[in-house]
Structures are given as C-alpha cells and as structure tokens.
Amino acid sequence: MGEASADVVTLDLLRAARETVRTSPLGVVRTPTISWSQTALPLSVSCDVHIKLENLQRTGSFKIRGVANQFARRPRGGHFVTMSAGNYGKSFAYALKHYGSKGKVVMPETAPESRSVLIESFGAEVERVPTSGLMTAVQRCVREENMTFLHSYDDLDLIAGHASLGMELLEEVPGPDVVVVCCGGGGLLAGVAAAIKLSGCHKTRIYGVEPEGACTMFTSFRENKPVWMEAKSVASGLAPPSAGQSLPVPFIHPSIILPSIIHPSFHPSIHHP
Ligand SMILES: Cc1ncc(COP(=O)(O)O)c(C=O)c1O
C-alpha cells in the first residue's frame, strides 16, 4: 500500500476509511473538541481556538485511527514489524494483541523506557537501536524473519485512517480559517489536510508544526525531495530520521493540500496561503 501516490486519494476512500475507523473493534474514540480560553492568547488576538483532545484515545494518541484502518486491511494472524518512538508502537501492539498477530517494534534508544515496557506488556517484541539504525533493523526483520513492514507514517491506509480526525473536526468546526497539526513523519498532517481539502474547504490554511531540531518535513519542502537528518528533539514522536518518503510529501504538496510548515527560520518560498 505504501507505494500508492497521492492522486489515488479521493473523498470516497477517506469516507470508507472513516467508517472502518468508527466501527473498528479497537474502540477508536470520537474525541471531544473543546473551546480554548481566549486568555491563552494575547488579548489583542481575536479568534476562537478549538482543540481536539486526541490524548483521550485508548492508547493515548491519534495513532489508533490509522492503525485501525491498517489492521482492518491486513490478514489476521500476520507477523508484522514497525519502527516507532512509542505512540504508534503502542497502538500497533494493542492491535496485534486484539487481532492475534505477532510483531516487533523497533524503537530508538532515546525513546522513554516506559513506552517499551508498555508495548511489551501487549505481547509485542521490542528492539532498541540508535535512531540512525531504525530502517536497517526493520529491513533485517523483513529479509531474515519474513515479517511484513507496517509503516508508522508513510502508508496510505494509515493516512486515510488519520483523515477521520479531520472529518470529525469539520463536523464540529465547519470551515475553519486555520488548522494547526503537529508533524513528525507527516502521516497525521497528510491525513488531516486531505480530509479538509477534499471536503471542499479550499480557503482553510493548514499548518504543520515540527521541532526546530527535527525539521525533516520543512527541509524536504525546501529541497523538494525527502531528506534524512540526525533529528534532535525532546519530542521523540516528532523526530523521525526522515519525513515520509513516498506519501506524506506528495499529499502535503501544494498541488493538493497547500499547507505550510511552521519553523523558526520560516521561508516564504514554501508558504502557500
Ligand atoms: C503525539 C504525537 N503527535 C504527533 C506525531 C507525529 O505524527 P506523524 O509522524 O504522523 O507526523 C506523533 C508521532 O509519533 C505523536 O506521537
């Protein structure tokens, strides 16, 4: 699935994924969207701010949405491997247990130990490696142990599952002026942006935000190709060694999505309002 390109994404595909997510046996929560107090912003700024509380998902993050759609479209009882700093790994391991599948999460050594412990408690294997060795370890599992790789951000089923978040948001806050999404590999940003743009909200500006020390998507846009870097950030979930290679970048690309990546050294040439 990861080889598909952005032009296969249609509103019908996203609606089907949303239904899969809604009815998933993994129990994906329709999270509340709350109004944020105006006092959180300078008084001169007049706007309504809404926050979608994805931390209330059963596995603690939005990742369960994409995972629900990925696992619904893979055979039960498979043997899977993924790489994750923790949040995707938690949802992946939770799904493995539910679907009676086996699997391994390859984690960066910098990820909190508590996350490995939790992932192992679901019955998944954990291998901790330096960040630069993540992909090599995954490839070895595929080659030598015949495991199927499930990507944690560069996968069409995952992105379509994450799009359900954008669809729920539009039902609660129709036609928003601006949507701000955190960005690691770009799977969430791609899904939310696809949902918003394909739903016809062409005026909505979508901003991806990533850590200064892990600005892989920003740099990929600037160089017009996916780049790898030694990412450094305490936000380990937002610091994969590269932005999505085949899917997120074209999804987020101006021809379809028109977001901007906010970064301290923001460069106007990649700003598409
Ligand atoms: C809490 C949280 N937010 C955002 C992200 C980034 O998601 P993506 O890699 O799809 O951009 C992650 C990734 O692990 C995460 O754990």
Automatic annotation (TrEMBL):
One of its GO terms (molecular function) is L-serine ammonia-lyase activity. SUPFAM superfamilies: Tryptophan synthase beta subunit-like PLP-dependent enzymes. One of its GO terms (biological process) is L-serine catabolic process. Transmembrane segments: none annotated. It holds the Pfam family PALP. It comes from the Eukaryota. Its cofactor is pyridoxal 5'-phosphate. Residues 28-241 form the Tryptophan synthase beta chain-like PALP domain. Keywords: Lyase, Pyridoxal phosphate. InterPro entries: Ser/Thr_Dehydratase, TrpB-like_PALP, TrpB-like_PALP_sf. This is L-serine deaminase.
